[in-house]
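Data deposition worksheet. Section B asks for the primary sequence of the deposited chain exactly as it was used as input, without tags or linkers unless they were present during the calculation. Section C holds the resulting structure in token form. Section D is free text for depositor observations; keep each observation to a single sentence. Incomplete worksheets are returned to the depositor.
Section A, Depositor: J.P.
Section B:
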Amino acid sequence: MMVAKKKLRTYGEHFTSVSIFKKFILPEIKEEIYNYRWVDLFCGEGNLILPILELVPAKERIKFFKNHIFLFDIQKDLVKKSILNAQKYGISEEIAQKNIIKRDTIKDYPVFILDSKLPIYHITNPPYLYIGYIVKHKETQRFLEYFSGPNKGYQDLYQLSLINDLRHQIKKMIYIIPSNFLFGSSVSNKIRKDFFYYYNLKKAFIFEKKIFQFTGTNVTICFFERKQSPKKEKIIFQGIKLNKKPQKRTYILSPQNNYRAGDEFEEFVNYYKAPVSLKVTYYLTMEQVEKNLGDKKIIVVDANSFNGKEYEKRIISINEKLYKLIKSNILFIRTVDTGSLEGRAGLYLIREIFKADGILVSRARYRTHPIQIFFQPQISKEDQILLKNYFNLLLEYFRQKTDSEFMTTYKYSNSEYTRKYLGLSQAKKLIETFPILNLKRIQLIEFKNLVNNKDAEGIINFIKSFNQSKELFLWA
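Section C:
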């Protein structure tokens, strides 16, 4: 199994089951099977095309196969498997070999398939291999040449497949691709901007559960259609999210936000940063402790020592300066949902959760550990509690509004909600909207009332109004 997993990772291949095809794709295309050439340039075992033959009468299948089906794969053994699968539908090996071909279709696009009166309909689950992974592993470095010349700037093999179809003016495609195509930022900004200038997204099935054997990568089945003319415009489509139960939602992808889905959170934190904002730093490190040794004793938990139930507590001896810094900053960030409603990502009081004064990183820093936050300028403990309540209230508001789509799915589990990860940069941006350094007394009273009443809509309207009015008075 480990050998198989490594081989799949080398090629970025994750095979799609026939059941996925029949449940989510076939119902969308069954009425038009005679109107297209059905192509998969990364066919694997042929599971995304060959089952179409079940809709064709047995006597007509050979003729249909010759004119309507073309499959390709870079691996010789997978081509053989596809040919064997075609034979199960009554296609002879000799005929199957003519239309099921070994070929590196990213490097060498099979333009001959375009020489027909029938338009191409490309249905595929292309390879997923992020360029950052390719660079680091010797067995995948041969793929680096793909990302040169006109492909420079793209970040994944599946993106090269999309751009190849764009360049060859394929009119309709169905792609099973990582959900970061829709929800990622820097990893997908370029491909979305380039691709959605020419294509619409008509529909998408968004999976928040595991569908491949060897990867937990979140995937989306996207139904693309080429525009009549290139245009920079909003993309509006129906999305069906699949987790414990299907959820339907209309998505709007805006060119101003690089066509990123679930972007309401990013729009808010980017546009409504406070005129004078709090600066934050993360982590209390052993290096800081060793540089500030002294006779002031303080209790910390060690984020690198977890026994399965709790973090180990330690007493450290430090100087007055670091002692005051730790005692003055009472919050930590939980970046990962625990699975319970009480343990969702957000800001928490160190003393309340850990019965300690600080959180020490004794070895390596991990973004998924509890992380102590330090503020500049220093704000009072009362204002930090206000920030905690503000932060968590707005975080939950945007999670509900976007179904947590601005966050990263952490792990599949049986918890009552899909566990998510909040990035430290996202947390920093939300903290920077906290207007505590800018408010006059009367504004502060209004702001506190909104937070204490848990009025998320009221808070957002307050923040928007405050920023738009350009009132830059500092707290007196």
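Section D:
The CA atoms of residues 245 and 320 lie 55 Å apart.
The chain is about 35% helix and 20% strand.
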